[in-house]
């Protein structure tokens, strides 16, 4: 890691201690020592063979905390106008003036980690940093180094708590804005979501670059209680020269349902890990992802689902749209434990190449230790169908618009999983903007 980050850790930690609960100081120090022991990955590491992070060594990224952003700029940013209970962070600092002051259902908390500590410090510490570093029979569910890096620079962070039996009707929007107006900066957003039994919520996470070159390394940890239902939509919408390396980790109790929608529509170097631990019977997991790569972008998606208990279902659909000299990567792991009989797991991964110089690397992995299961995976790579393009052109549709429509048809299966309508509309508009057509 660049000296501007690691050598200044003590100074940054001291600054953060003035803004965050005292108990986090020890957590940060332990994480810093853990990261220092392993350092950054290289392309010699199998899990990072297609994505070089050398830029983090020499990119001059410095930790940032706070910046001036007015409400007009925040609302004009991608996903800025959705109707939601909104908590906003600017360069890792909570921005109350850019957040909404909504009346919440009784017992619901939507705020910062400090709010979580005020509610129940012991319970927060029982999950913070633990979900993203779960250890199972088959080893860690995650490459932990970037979890440790995030925790070493952990600032205020977002916290959501939904008590037993409560359904939050309005969307919750956790908005992370980055503004690098004095050179490259590094930000470390953190999210902890705790949902008790039979609760329900829809959460949108957005990561938006407003200005300059940024390195963002977010970590999201989610704990779902028995029969809880969560739709978590994640929009990575950062600047074209930015680096984004992130982790999402979810622990599901029996009967819970997770829908995770991962939309990558920005950044230059992007790596996202999703790790889901099915820790009770009759859980249901939907992982959906769509990425758009252009120029020399690298977008690397890794997923891992641990079927640790019987009678669970997982359905995974990831799609990559790659143009110019961009590179897409998908690595999807499904582990079915010996006791996880009656598992039903399906994984689908597709790449669409819009140029001859784009590349796509896919590696589905299934490791099954139970004998009464139904597990399938499929991976395809292709180009736009010439006959479909010819058909549309013959009916007067301009070439650029016809291509955009066909690309959207390819990606629609993922976007349609977003049931927060105004967020879905905004993300679709961004897709067409990336394709250079505007909405069609």
Give structural attributes.
440 residues; alpha/beta; twelve-stranded mixed sheet; ten-stranded mixed sheet
What does this protein look like?
The protein is of the alpha/beta class and 440 residues long. The chain has one domain. The protein is built from 10 helices and 24 strands. Strands 1, 4, 7, 9, 10, 12, 13, 15, 17, 19, 21 and 23 form a 12-stranded mixed sheet that branches. Helix 8 crosses helix 9. The radius of gyration is 21 Å and the shape is globular. The termini are far apart. The relative contact order is 0.10. The model has no long low-confidence stretch (mean pLDDT 91).
| CA-CA gap between termini | 43 Å
- Report strand %: 35-45%
Number of domains: 1
Judged by helices, strands and strand pairing, the structural class is alpha/beta
Uncertain residue ranges: none
Oligomer description? single chain
Task: Describe the main β-sheet briefly.
Answer: 12 strands, mixed
General form = globular
Number of helices, where a helix is a run of at least 4 consecutive DSSP H or I residues: 10
Helix content: 10-25%
Rg for CA atoms: 21 Å
Summarize model confidence as the mean pLDDT: 91
């Amino acid at each position: 890691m660049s000296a501007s980050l690691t050598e200044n850790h003590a100074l940054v930690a001291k600054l953060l201690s003035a803004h965050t609960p005292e108990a986090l100081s020890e957590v940060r120090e332990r994480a810093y020592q853990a990261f220092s022991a392993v350092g950054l990955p290289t392309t010699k590491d199998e899990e990072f063979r297609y994505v070089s992070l050398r830029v983090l060594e020499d990119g001059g990224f410095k930790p940032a905390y706070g910046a001036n952003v007015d409400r007009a700029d925040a609302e004009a940013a991608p996903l800025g106008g959705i109707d939601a209970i909104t908590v906003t962070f600017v360069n890792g600092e909570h921005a109350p003036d850019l957040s909404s002051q909504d009346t919440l259902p009784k017992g619901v908390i939507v705020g910062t980690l400090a709010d979580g500590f005020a509610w129940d410090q012991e319970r927060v510490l029982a999950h913070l940093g633990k979900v993203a570093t779960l250890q199972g029979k088959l080893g860690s569910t995650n490459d932990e180094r970037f979890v440790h890096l995030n925790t070493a620079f952990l600032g205020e962070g977002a916290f959501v708590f939904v008590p037993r039996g409560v359904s939050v009707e309005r969307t919750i929007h956790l908005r992370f804005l980055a503004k690098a107006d004095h050179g490259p900066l590094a930000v470390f957003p953190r999210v902890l979501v705790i949902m008790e039994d039979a609760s329900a919520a829809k959460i949108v996470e957005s990561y938006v670059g407003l200005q300059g070159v940024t390195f963002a390394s977010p970590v999201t940890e989610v704990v779902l209680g028995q029969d809880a239902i969560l739709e978590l939509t994640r929009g990575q919408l950062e600047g074209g020269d930015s680096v984004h390396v992130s982790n999402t980790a979810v622990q599901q109790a029996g009967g819970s349902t997770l829908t995770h929608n991962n939309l990558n529509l920005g950044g230059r170097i992007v790596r996202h890990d999703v790790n889901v631990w099915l820790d009770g019977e009759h859980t249901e997991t939907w992982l959906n992802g769509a990425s758009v790569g252009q120029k020399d972008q690298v977008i690397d998606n890794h997923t891992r689902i641990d079927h640790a208990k019987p009678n669970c279902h997982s359905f995974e659909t990831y799609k990559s749209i790659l143009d110019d000299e961009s590179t897409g990567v998908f690595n999807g792991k499904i582990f079915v434990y010996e006791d996880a009989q009656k598992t039903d797991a399906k994984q689908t991964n597709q790449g669409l190449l819009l140029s001859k110089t784009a590349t796509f690397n896919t590696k589905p992995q299934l490791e099954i230790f139970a004998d009464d299961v139904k597990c399938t995976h499929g991976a395809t790579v292709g180009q736009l169908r010439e006959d479909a393009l010819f058909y549309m052109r013959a009916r007067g549709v301009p070439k650029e618009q016809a291509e955009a429509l066909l690309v959207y048809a390819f990606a629609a299966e993922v976007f349609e999983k977003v049931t927060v309508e105004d967020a879905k509309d905004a993300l679709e508009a961004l897709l067409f903007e990336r394709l250079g057509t505007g909405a069609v």
